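Loading example: each entry is read as two labelled lines plus one structure line.
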Amino acid sequence: MADENWKPKIIAIICNWCSYAGADLAGGARIQYPPDIRAIRVMCTGRVDPLFILKAFQDGADGVLVSGCHFGDCHYLEGNYKAAKRMFLLKSVLKNIGLDDKRLRMTFVSASEGAKWGTVMEDVVKTINELGPSPLKEFAR
Amino acid sequence: MAEVKKNEEPRIGVFVCHCGTNIAGSIDVKEVMEYARTLPNVIVADDYQYMCSTPGQNKIAEAIDEQKLTGVVVAACSPRLHEPTFRNATKAGGLNPFRFEMANIREQNSWVHMHQPEEATAKAKDAVRIAVAKASLLEDLVPKSVPVEKAAMVVGGGVGGMQAALDLANAGIKTYLVEKSPTIGGRMSQLDKTFPTLDCSQCILTPKMVDVYRNEGIELLTYTEVEQVEGYIGNFDVTLRKKARGVITPEEAEARGIVGGGCTGCGDCVDVCPVIKPNPFELGMAPRKAIYIYHPQVSPLIYTVDFDACVKCGLCVEACGDKKAVDLEMKDELMNVKVGTVVLATGYDIFPIEKKFEWGYKNYDNVITSLEFERLICASGPTGGHLVRPSDGETPKRVAFVLCAGSRDNTGVGKPYCSRFCCMYSLKHAHQIIEKIPGVVPYIFYMDIRSFGKMYEEFYYRIQDEGAKFIRGRVANILEDPVTKNLHVNAEDTLLGRPIDMEVDMVVLAAAVQPTAETEKTRRLFGVSCSQDGWLLEAHPKLNPCGTTTAGVYLAGVCQGPKDIPDTVAQAEGAASAASIPIHRGEVELEPYFAQCIEEKCAGCGLCVNLCPYSALSLVEKDGRTVMQVTEAKCKGCGTCGGFCPGGAIWMQHFATPQIVAQIDAFLLGGEQ
């Protein structure tokens, strides 16, 4: 799998109010970042069932990003806290199944942080490139 | 995971937008469209220059009708921009508007991968594939209508808040105007004259203050703060803290059974009060007693006891006599109001310009801020309108005005933005001293003079003609002569290209404005975001400058960003108009992203009940077993319950588990491996 043509497949599940808006702002400002991430919009990171992330890894994702509002800024008061707790726990699950927990990342990008979204994109792609293809890739259906 | 709630065979139409060259400039739109035709369930795919145009929208409606589509995908800009447009187009074609899904190939693709056309095109194909997967599983949804409380609240009693409250009340809406200080009027009441007309600020403001006070539709709540906010558009439940004022109004006296009592504003209490404090309205340049009013034109004319300073000697109670207006045992009171919409007009603070230590504010007596200048030049101010040097009380003959003091400052100390009204009021200050002090010379140190408003540029020329001297250059530092207390202003005259060391009698710093210290608290109370510089964030900088991302909360004035009085009043009228719309309509539609319980899967464990921040979920007995029940009016659709249910028994409408899993699968398992 680890051929030289390998391009990372990274999925981002991001909240409508902060990170999705921040990503839109990055677009408006024409901030350029690597094109390896595909975003799925949910209303709140609280919606992110840990099973979604396990499913993504099972499907061969090389990395998963969950991005929401800053603490205290959640459009739904506290969904991002709950998401952060779940992601924290999920990281230990990933470690237990032999997956580097750096493949899952949670970030907090507000609606006014277009530049930060660009930095996050750079950073996530860099991390996954360093880690290489997911070892689960060959088991993907 | 929950099963798919549908029996029909999906028939999806995909429409790819060029957006001129915005998308087509880096994405091969034709290739994306051809690719869409190869995807499962896609019956028809098309592309168009501008999908949001009428012909573009018609394409959608016609395809729905002709091809009997069950779902629509538009690959174009952000759903945050045009989702409503295409939902309407979907509806026009006879399909439920929630059968629409958008693929963002502009903000999150063509604009951010401008120099990688191949990768951008590949990403667009993935986005379309992901969207088609979701569209294939979308179901009909009906928005829920909720009634709107026929009342509004305005937070902040400055000129913006007053205007918004007046407009709302005059439109027949019961309006609560909440102001944290003892009087309405705000910053504008501290100003002497206003540019460029040179109207006396108080003269144009006090009639409005009186209007607000007299308006039967406005319940004026001064010395009151917002404590807690619950609910949503149409039904905000607000807890207010009425701070203990120590003085009762005639109405309150009547309620207490004191005939002819209550504060009449006579001021007898002030004469006897032994405590002297600096008056914050005069920026500490004048004294005030522990029982006080800010200035003679306050509204309402009710005295206030500063309980932090009061020694409770009781002399004021004695002086008040039979009116029994002073109550030194008064405690804060909480009150609840229900409102449909809210306007925030919380204003600004002055940047603490002493942080720019090189200009010596607070170290050198004769370096003052523009707001202090306003009080000194104001006839009702501490010096009766005579501009004097704080060091010796002499009248200054050479006055330097330093513009962009803390504004347009990229050193990290000041603010990067332009404070927008300092140029104009500094021109006005120059005019005022020329008018009042014979032989005075104002020196204006500027970077650029920004006189952009109506009659502003003409005003600038007028001040030039009156004899103000303009020096283009930022002031490097100011040094004080320890003997004369005169100041040496060091700058570079960038037009002549030479350094200057100018001796002046007084320096006025046009200090930047910044968000108030309470902004953070306010925005968290109301769930409003702030922009990078800390001002409250509007819903859209151009197309929705009064709205916020929280439905039913609107912005007016400087709390949204620096602006002068005309712009503040204009925005306030806009915000009031926006805030009145849901109230006059009488109901608002909530997006139907509610949680639903799949009862056959629910084990009644109740974990979700505690997760819900809105108490929308509860456990009920049904057919002999315990299941969860959703109160739709309370559910806001965040999905926090749906993300946790161990049995997969919560169906999040429009963001259902099978729909999201289909998106994940479509990206990772569909397409080229």
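The mean pLDDT of chain A is 93.
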